[in-house]
Amino acid sequence: MELQIADSLLIQNYINGDERALETLIKRHNQRLSSFIYSKVNDREITEDIFQDTFIKVIRTLKKGKYNEEGKFLPWVMRIAHNLIIDHFRKNRRMPYFEASNTFDIFSVVHDEKLNIEKQIIKDQIDEDLVLLIEELPVDQRDVLVMRMYKDMSFKEISENTGVSINTALGRMRYALINLRKIIDEHNIVLTN
Amino acid sequence: MGKFYVEKKKKYEKVMAKPETIDFLLNYSKSLKINDIKGVKFESNMN
Questions:
Q1: How far is CA A169 from CA A36, A68, A96, A157, A179, in A?
Q2: What is the pTM (predicted TM-score) of this model?
Q3: How many distinct structural domains can be found in chain A?
Q4: Handedness of CA B22, B28, B30, B36 (dihedral sign)
Q5: ipTM of the complex
Q6: Which end is more exposed in chain A, N or C (fewer Cβ atoms within 10 Å of the end residue's Cβ)?
Q7: Contact A26 B16 (CB under 8 A)
């Protein structure tokens, strides 16, 4: 069985001058990071560019000794990529675009109700953050919230599944929401779109 | 609001950066030097 060297050790080795450690890190996370970027931009060339820019930032940060290893390496790299994706879409929004003539505006009849890509990315991020916040709730409250919001179960079904009364299930849901708000307030978390 | 959060996540398509991109990054890393002069860090590229 092949033992995998931890990311933190590879980073330390890289900072100490071992360039091969960087190669291992890039290859280890290549697919995950590339797929993440591609899922947002849907273009291979742009994915390649953002992947490259992400690791240029990683390299510069590590070489300057500015890497703060409070979190894990991959989430940090994903966050850099996420910011670059947003930059990419912001930059593209400033590109020339079609302007309707005075006589007919195509956008008066064509309407796209989907979220634009920037809002979609923000929404995905909120969804991910919310899942982490829900993990912090007490188990009984978390179960009710997950059954109600994610599994779309009625309070009657929740009560049958958990073996408590409907009123108790309702109470747990109420406290789950109160506690979620409390966690959000205490940590100054901004969940907005 | 419940429905807002129950949308299925789209499946990620597996994509990999090209070997040329990785080579570029490795060469960039090798050529990048950071000089610390009186606490100020300067980047220089040896390419």
A1: 37, 43, 54, 10, 15
A2: 0.55
A3: 2
A4: negative
A5: 0.73
A6: N
A7: no
